[in-house]
Predict the structure.
Amino acid sequence: MTPRISVDPLSSTLFALADPTRRGILAQLAKMGDATVNELAAPYEMSLAAVSKHLKVLESAGLISRGRDAQRRPCHLEGKPLQAVALWLEDYRQFWERSMDSLADYLVMMQREREQPLEPATPKKTRMPKRTSRARRRNGKDG
Amino acid sequence: MSHSSATDKSQTSGRNNSNPSTRTSDMQVSTPDDAPLIVMTRTFEAPRDLVWEAFTDPRHVSKWYGGHGFQNPVCEMDVRPGGIWRHVMRTPDGMDFHIEYVFVEVVKPTKLVWQNADYGKRATNEPGRHPDNVMTVTLEELGPKLTKWTLVTRFNSVEERNSVLEIGFTEMIKQGSEKLNDLVKGLG
């Protein structure tokens, strides 16, 4: 299938996101808004220099920007590059979720049809007629 | 790969994170940190043979593929290794998506493996292209009428491996980073 989601040359975004610390930093920014290196480094047992390195990667991937304030240079989350990648997988997940809900309902229907044929033309085997109650209950849940 | 209808959809219904529990209760999604996989599982109250049939017979697949409101005007499946799955899925708003997969492994009634038919021939950097991946469905019999479905989507290149990790972000969004949520929603 050819999705219309336009995904920019993703490599730098993806590389930046591949690291758990960097994802953590982005999550922090998402939660608390703009923050300084010191604030961002607080939850991690790593040097400020190491955190700064991560910030550089994020910055060059366009995932964050740094403020002008020479002292603090607060980091700011930039959502745009994230959007494309997040949509891809969110879409993928939702596709399967929808499809499996639909399949679940379809399976209920298949079982009902096979267990209780509409036409009494094939009365030979009525398999496990007791079990339908379960299937029915299941059907109450839409897909 | 699959699905993903068009942009409009992903931006409207794609962001239902304000209410994540309503539709996600049945399917579990996980993304191991150390492997290029997306793993989804769910359980069906149906015998395994029936799930297999519903999953591999195009007459059935065309009934559920895509979900409610979707139609599948074309669904041809040659279910054997090397066989082609040719499919057109129509979204509720009438957009058609042409899909072509090739089956890689078929072990009735437990395992079905397929991948995009142009596997390895895609320019992964090309804007808007999905990365190559291999999908493996396994069906596990938990009871006479209880079947566990597992879909493992495996990516190959480094880039694809990394893209897998984005779901970490999706999770984060889902878990209520409202700001990121709004940010992402507002752009686009």
User: Anything to note?
Assistant: Chain B has a mean pLDDT of 73.
